[in-house]
Amino acid sequence: MRSIELVLDGPSDAVVRALWQTLVAAELPSLGHSGTNDPHVTLVAGEALPVPPDLDVAVPETVRVAGVLLFPAGPGRHVLGLGVVVDEPLARFHRALDAAAPGSLDSSRPGHWAPHVTLARRIRDVDLPAALRVLAADAPLPEVLAVGGLRHWDGDAKVVTRLQ
Fold first, then answer.
1. No. of H helices and E strands in the chain?
2. Across the strands, what pairs with 62?
3. 0.90 exceeded by pTM
4. Residue 56 and residue 117: Cα distance in Å, rounded?
5. Burial classification of residue 71, based on how many CB atoms lie within 10 Å of its CB (0-12 exposed, 13-18 middle, 19 or more buried)
6. What residues make up the domain containing 67?
């Protein structure tokens, strides 16, 4: 699988990592356990997604956090993340990227995409109340995250190509 992702700047990256560590400290699932993941927003993903040529649309400088978001991840499990507001600059950039890098999955196409920053994968349903409690009490959610760049991730080759 390949993807094109917005990465966060240093301070915003640290905010998300602090949220991961809050979950780790509460002995809950978290990407803070992985050690290899970087906080990011996946823009498009697909099996053969190319590195796009130069884009003529500016990368958004910030993304607004909409709140906590859940996706099903199998029986009794969810992905827990920070939802991202699709404002006009982000939507315009996403459409341009979708056109420049064809071959994305339907779930990352305009009109179907639900941008987010993942906090935990496959968290058990029974752990969701505790996760929400510790996040609300110990680590208030950010309102805005600053974008630090754009990258292409080739999961098969484990290669990151910095695009901007």
1. 3, 7
2. 146
3. yes
4. 25
5. middle
6. 2-162
Helix 10-25 with 128-138: angle, nearest 10 deg: 130
Task: Walk along the chain (164 residues) and give the pLDDT tens digit of each residue.
Answer: 999 999 999 999 999 999 999 999 999 999 998 766 899 999 999 998 888 877 777 899 999 999 999 999 999 999 999 999 999 999 999 999 999 888 899 999 999 999 999 999 999 999 999 999 999 997 789 999 999 999 988 888 888 888 87
Interacting residues of 155 by C-beta distance below 8 A, sequence separation 6+: 1, 2, 3
Find the helix or strand (DSSP H, E) in which 132 lies. Answer: helix 128-138
- Tokens matching residue 84: 């991202």
Specify the number of domains making up the chain.
1
Which residue's structure tokens are 């996946």?
42
| Three-state DSSP class for residue 7 | strand
Residue with tokens 């590195």: 51
Domain harbouring 44, CATH code:
3.90.1140.10
